[in-house]
Amino acid sequence: MQRFKEALNQIPFFKSEFSRNVLTVMSGAGIAQLLPILFALVTTKLYSPKDFGVFALYTALFYIIATIATLRYELAINLPADDTSAVNVILVSGIVNFINCTLFAIPLILFNQRIGLLLGNAPIAPWLYVLPLHCFVYGFCLSLNSWLNRKKLFSMLAMASILQALVSGVSQILIGFFGGYGLMIGLFLGNLTTCIWMLIGFNKSRQPIQTSFSALIKTAKSYRKFPIFQMPAALIEIASTQLPTILLNRFFGTEVVGLFSISQRFIRIPINLISNSFCAVFQQKASEAYALTGNARPLFNKMLKRLVMIAIIPFAILAVFAPDLFALTLGEKWRMAGDYARILAPLFFASFIVGPLSIMIIIAEKQYYMLMINSILFIAVACALSIGYDIFGSVKYALGLMTLVYIIKFSFELYSSRRFCCKE
Q1: Per-residue model confidence (pLDDT) at position 1
Q2: Is the separation of the CB atoms in 126 and 112 below 8 Å?
Q3: Domain boundary at 202, 223, 244, which?
């Protein structure tokens, strides 16, 4: 093993500390994203589409609440020059997280049955008791993640991603033999294990904590832009992402949401894995070209052509054979998930292409465009799904209209990204 490491270090690419760190994180992220697909080959045999529907709604609520629980203070942990100030940011994030999750717990505990009925999913009601605690654990994970990133403990971050996927998947399988609620329990255990693992890394890398109430108040005020600006933008983005799950459940029922969630999982995970790799490469090269010459458009056009060439055949196969592929790999009861994947294929295709290229909007510091796009998307998706339900009474029409909305969104995003390739 030592000789292998020495041989790698002789390769110019691996001599760079930055390159090695990127590969460490990407390897962990890659394994962590592939594991759920492998585990899903088993969990889809143990759980029904309705079980996955309850789980999909639970995770939608979970990510919405968890996104705003910390008020995005965890994003500021990397900013202070000294570790003492960074620890103060972690404490502020933790206190805010605890207060918000406690406030969320009050209505979720008192009115869990009514909330379940309002969402059109009565079986989720008991799990609303667990939701605030789960969100608190996840929010703490986000803060610890930022700290480990600050201290360059990338191997611990990679292992944290793998632990999350591994513990969640194994727990869901083991509990699945005894009941239908292992999906939520497994996700919670995965987050809890990850939190404990990162807490160990935090305790090993920190100095003795020295703080005061006045220091925490000063820290909260110093980074108030994060709850004022970052939190609303993040809330709109995550709400737009999770809105289809919530509305499809309300309109068409739990089983439809379960099928929809599986179609999303099996297509989006490999898309994100490949797309994120392209995004990392394009961001580095485009940022350099934009800073040096003020023009990243040739690089943009080259990357666009490459992404289209890579995507066109796989997504054409998906559009034609998705139902048969889902039935063959997961079982006949999941054929309808393949039908949904077929309808969503143009959406996935556009997402794969535009996702990496849209980083140009961030490079050009035009973030307000993303806020505007996501705000309009939220309203448009709600309207599309409502029309599919109220006028056509068909989940397939609803998904088709939603796909059309996303195609328009990605088209505008692509146009804006290309326009911002040149400095004004």
Answers
A1: 42
A2: yes
A3: 223
Residues 385 and 305 sit within 8 Å (Cβ to Cβ): no
Give the pLDDT confidence of 286-318 residue by residue, as tens digits. 888 888 888 889 989 998 998 999 889 989 999
- Decide: 47 and 184 in contact? Cβ < 8 Å: no
Task: Please give the structure tokens belonging to residue 220.
Answer: 């909260």
Q: Supply φ then ψ for residue 293, to 5 degrees.
A: -115, -15
Give Cα 253 to chain centroid, integer Å.
24
Residue 384 amino acid letter:
A
Contact 145, 274 (CB under 8 A): no
pLDDT at 279 over 80: no
For position 14, what pLDDT does the model report? 44
> Residue 121 carries which side chain, given as an amino acid letter?
N
Residue 3 and residue 311: Cα distance in Å, rounded?
A: 38
pLDDT one-digit tens code per residue, 23-75: 544 555 667 777 888 898 899 999 999 999 999 999 999 999 998 999 999 98
- Tell whether 181 and 305 lie within a shared domain: no
Dist CA 368 CA 311 (whole Å): 29
End-to-end CA distance of the chain: give it in Å, rounded.
52
Residue whose tokens read 């083991």 = 174
Which of 223, 256, 285 represents a domain boundary (last residue)?
223
314: domain range?
Answer: 228-424
Residues 338 and 275 in one domain: yes
Which residue do the tokens 């029309």 mark?
A: 387
Spatial contact of 239 and 187, defined as CB atoms under 8 Å apart: no
Tally of domains within the chain: 2
Give yes or no for a contact between 261 and 60, defined as CB atoms under 8 angstroms apart: no
Q: What percent of the chain has pLDDT over 70?
A: 92
Which residues are paired to 422 by β-bridges?
295
**Pick from 186, 163, 173, 168: which is nearest to 44 by CA?**
173
Give residue 9's pLDDT.
52
One-letter amino acid of 297 = R
pTM comes to 0.85
